[in-house]
Amino acid sequence: MTTTTTADRYPTRTAGESAPITRAEPALWNGAASGPLDAATASSYDAKGFLTVDGLLTPDEVEVFRAEVDRLRTDPAVRADERTVVEKQSDDVRSIFEVHRISDLVGRLAADPRLLDRARQILGSDVYVHQSRVNFMPGFTGKGFYWHSDFETWHAEDGMPLMRAVSASIALTDNYPFNGGLMLMPGAHRTFVPCAGATPDDHYRESLKEQEIGVPSRAHLTALAAAHGIEQFTGPAGSALMFDSNSMHGSGSNITPFARSNIFLVFNSVENALVEPFAASRPRPDFVASRDFTPLG
Ligand code: 6CS
Ligand code: FE
């Protein structure tokens, strides 16, 4: 049986520092194709690597999803599930992965045309859910996420060949500048930043709490920030951010009384299905990186 190996366009988890690589593939895979994004929004997404959708969910829908994620967060069976990650310092629930399979409500949201049609237009193909999670960034104790590119991890540890995935972060609480709102470097999605350091076995057990391997060097981050600046996703509950898999992003911790919770859905193109990890000894579990490539919708 012949096994084909996919060329590694983006070597990372190298022994030492290596130079950034210019992205070869587009961010917007089929520009003019029909879909909910108008031309101005589509070209802005291509240039910046992200877009926002005001009022993706109605206030009533926000209430329904908040009740649903609070139900999950307080369910002892869910807390005991390996798909639930708790904060390093406290016992607070940090994330619940594969939430689109645990909750029918979230499963339906993943197939909702308001998200699905945007993802298909951006990726230029049918899509499937690569990963879903609900992030609870509780007030006072919510820990942030250091700067990173999701694609760097998904390429190294999940075997995602190309940058042909888009994430949707749907705010269930108001996102202020001061309660851990996501920060992004507009345009940095066009540069792949290799990260030094080999991937430990079962790295996800640590990295989902606090990522130390697979983070760019300060020198690379300084250069990217100088070239692109930093923008922050703020907005009322119900608004959504859609960002390219290789966007450089991170968030601060939340010491305010205002929680910052979001549902996070990652759409990958069915033409970008996972292969073997490019820089890890074995693939991560399905609940972090799905290997069911059945198209949505
Ligand atoms: O490792 C991952 O797949 C997850 N880690 C982060 C910090 N963002 C993307 C993703 O949810
Ligand atoms: Fe991330």
TrEMBL record:
Domain of life of the organism encoding this protein: Bacteria
Keyword Metal-binding tagged: yes
Amino acid composition bias (Low complexity), ranges on this chain: 1-15
GO molecular function: 2-oxoglutarate-dependent dioxygenase activity; iron ion binding
Reaction(s) catalysed (UniProt annotation): L-ectoine + 2-oxoglutarate + O2 = 5-hydroxyectoine + succinate + CO2
Gene3D superfamilies on file: q2cbj1_9rhob like domain
Protein name: Ectoine hydroxylase
